[in-house]
Write a structure and sequence with these properties.
The protein contains 8 helices and 17 strands. With 310 residues, the protein is α/β, with parallel strands linked by helices. Strands 7-11-6-1-4-5-12 form a 7-stranded parallel beta sheet. Strands 14-13-15-16-17 form a 5-stranded parallel beta sheet. It has a 3-stranded antiparallel beta sheet with strand order 8-9-10, with no helix packed on it. The longest helix has 14 residues.
C-alpha cells in the first residue's frame, strides 16, 4: 500500500463532500488525511469512516489563512515528514492553487482536474480538447501529485483507524502574497464546480428575474443555479454562473438544463455529469441527443410543476 496524503477541505467545521470522493479514489492505500487550520476532533469520526488511517492535525505559528504560500510550504513539509508517496486533493479553487505551489516547492510534476486516478500505476485520466476526448497520462516523479475534479468520483465509506497525530511546522512565510479580503458572490449559494446538483437556465429564461423560478426549484434540491453563455451574453446572469467551455466545468450527480440548446461549448463544461435532464420546447434541440432524460415543453410550465412535486 502506498502512503497517500489527502488534503482535506473543511467549510463551517464540516468536511466538504468532494473531499470524500478524493478519499475514495485512494481506497486500499494507507491514507493520511491532512487537516490544516481546523479542529480535527470535530471531523475525526467522519474522516475515519471514509478510510483515514492517520489524521494529521497540522499547525504553524502565526496566521496561515492569509498566506497560500505559507500553507503550501507547510503542506510540503508534511509530505516530507510522513514520507508520502502520493498527495491528492480536490480540483477546487483552493486545491488548484495550493497544489500548483506545492509542485513548485517539491519540484515534482502535477496533474490537475482528473476524473480517474490509479495510484499503483501512477496514471490518471482527464479530459482534453474541451471534453472531446479523454487521455490516460503516466506520471513520472518521486511524489505523485494530483487534483481530482469535484464529484467525478462517488464517495464510498471505507473505515480506517482514524489515529490523530500532531504536526507543527516551523517553516517561514516567504511573504510573496497576502490575502487581505475574500469577497463572495452574494447570489451564488453553492459553488457551481462543487455542487452535487445543478439547474441551469439558457436563453429561453428570457429575463434575469426569471432565474427566481430556477432558484426556487434549486432550493428544494440543495442545488446550485447555472447559466448558459447565451443567457450570460444576453445579460440575464453574471459570468460567475456560466457553465461551459468559456465558463465553469462542472461534474454534478444531476444536471438539469432548462431552455439550453446544447451547443458543443456548453456540453464541454458539463458532459461528465452523472445524469443529464433536458427541458426544451424544441424537440430537435441538440441537448436531447446528449441527455439521459428529456422533456419537450415550455420551461415556464415544467419547472414550477417540478418544484411543486419536489
Amino acid at each position: 500500500m502506498a502512503r497517500t496524503g489527502i488534503l482535506i477541505e473543511i467549510e463551517n467545521n464540516v468536511v466538504k463532500e468532494t473531499s470524500f470522493g478524493v478519499m475514495t479514489a485512494a481506497a486500499g492505500q494507507e491514507i493520511y488525511a491532512l487537516v490544516l487550520g481546523h479542529d480535527v476532533s470535530a471531523v475525526k469520526n467522519v474522516l475515519a469512516e471514509y478510510g483515514a488511517t492517520v489524521i494529521v492535525n497540522i499547525t504553524a505559528p502565526g496566521d496561515t489563512s492569509s498566506s497560500p504560500d505559507l500553507q503550501a510550504q507547510i503542506l510540503a513539509a508534511a509530505v516530507k515528514e510522513y514520507n508520502l508517496e502520493t498527495l491528492l486533493g480536490t480540483a477546487s479553487t483552493t486545491g488548484k492553487d495550493l497544489f500548483a505551489r506545492m509542485a513548485a516547492i517539491l519540484d515534482e510534476p502535477l496533474v490537475s482536474d482528473c476524473v480517474q486516478v490509479n495510484i499503483a500505476d501512477k496514471t490518471v485520466k482527464k479530459s482534453h480538447f474541451s471534453g472531446k476526448t479523454f487521455a490516460t497520462l503516466k506520471v513520472n516523479g518521486s511524489i505523485f501529485l494530483c487534483t481530482i475534479r469535484p464529484n467525478s468520483i462517488e464517495p464510498v465509506p471505507s473505515s480506517g483507524a482514524g489515529e490523530i497525530v500532531e504536526f507543527t511546522s516551523d517553516v517561514a512565510d516567504p511573504g510573496l502574497i497576502k490575502i487581505v479580503e475574500v469577497k463572495k458572490d452574494a447570489g451564488e449559494k453553492l459553488d457551481l464546480t462543487e455542487a452535487p446538483v445543478i439547474i441551469t437556465g439558457g436563453r429561453a429564461i428570457k429575463a434575469a428575474e426569471n432565474y427566481q423560478m430556477l432558484e426556487a426549484c434549486a432550493k428544494k434540491m440543495g442545488a446550485a443555479v447555472g447559466a448558459s453563455r447565451a443567457a450570460v451574453d444576453a445579460g440575464y446572469a453574471p459570468h460567475s454562473m456560466q457553465v461551459g467551455q468559456t465558463g465553469k466545468t462542472v461534474s454534478p450527480r444531476l444536471y438539469i438544463a432548462c431552455g439550453v440548446s446544447g451547443a458543443v461549448q456548453h456540453f464541454a463544461g458539463m458532459k461528465t455529469s452523472k445524469v443529464i435532464v433536458a427541458i426544451n420546447e424544441d424537440k430537435d434541440a441538440p441537448i436531447f441527443s446528449k441527455c439521459d432524460y428529456g422533456i419537450v415543453g415550455d420551461i415556464f410550465d415544467v419547472v414550477p410543476v417540478l418544484t411543486e412535486k419536489l
